[in-house]
Amino acid sequence: MSKNVNQKIYFAGNTIFNEGETGTRAFLIKEGEVEIRKQLGNREILLGTIQKGSIFGEMALIDDQPRSASAVAVRDTTVIIISRDVLQGKLASADPFVRGLLNIFVRNLRTMTKRMSALERQLNGAE
Description:
It is a single chain. The chain is an alpha+beta fold. The chain has one domain (2-126): Sandwich (Jelly Rolls). The protein is 35% helix and 36% strand. It has a four-stranded antiparallel sheet. It is flat and about 45 Å long. The relative contact order is 0.23.
């Protein structure tokens, strides 16, 4: 696995990936802090802030859908980059039930994100 895993530093304010991009890597925060942001019309909303030990960007690797949000380093952040091949290899050796459950979780999370976006648009239209 070590040959497929490397580290990268993103400085404060650097975009790690953008919403809508094809995902080829997941990230594990070794040190630092990352905001997950979603574009709603001409506004950007903060979905959450994640820190050391958190993994992000994995959904696009699991279900091959475009990234559902953007990730931006809040402060200088070191990440361990996990390639699609490494993650797919780990999933291939996992129990089929666990793989199925993971796919359901990702699908449900994407559905909830879409519903949240639709609700936000409705609320903004009512103002």
